[in-house]
Amino acid sequence: AELDQRLAHETDMPIKIAVSGIFVSWDLLDYPLSVRDMRLRDRLAWIGSHKAEVMGFGMSLAAVFLIPCMQLLLLPAGVVGATALVFSIEEAEKRNAQKRDARQLGP
After folding, report:
1. Could you tell me which of 67, 55, 75, 70 has the C-alpha nearest to residue 15?
2. 12-49 pLDDT, tens per residue?
3. What's the pTM value of the predicted model, to 2 decimals?
4. CA–CA separation, 61 and 36 (whole Å)
């Protein structure tokens, strides 16, 4: 019975971090996306189209936030990181669009 409980705890932890990562991402990305006048539907679409980046960001912070007092210390850095994430994704999308347009125009 003790082994079953230990195995259940070990398999629950990745799920807990993934779910926590979703909520941490949503919470921290809310500000930079709302500053860009994105409505709820637009924010959900943006997060859905950048799942890997958002989940990587949120899960890494969720894992660190499991350490006592780290959320209090790292929350401001998380907000800055969310803003940098949104900015870098937007810049990458602009560069990709410019490259695509340049290829369509040809030499």
Report:
1. 55
2. 778 888 899 999 999 999 999 999 999 999 999 999 99
3. 0.79
4. 23
